Amino acid sequence: MPIIEIIVQPNGQTRLETRGFTGSQCRQASQFLEQALGARAGERLTSEFHQEQAAQRHAHEPQ
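The chain above was modelled as a monomer; its predicted structure follows.
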């Protein structure tokens, strides 16, 4: 089951973590939260993001 977790640190900074999404689905699902929270300070992509990217490249390679 896909999850979006919002972590609020004691200094007020927020961080979004997504789990259970593949590829860019996480960006689409969390976009409304990112807009509500303000400017993005950084991004760290998970292995789940890269798994779909690799699968798509493999599917398009000639046999």
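The mean pLDDT is 80.
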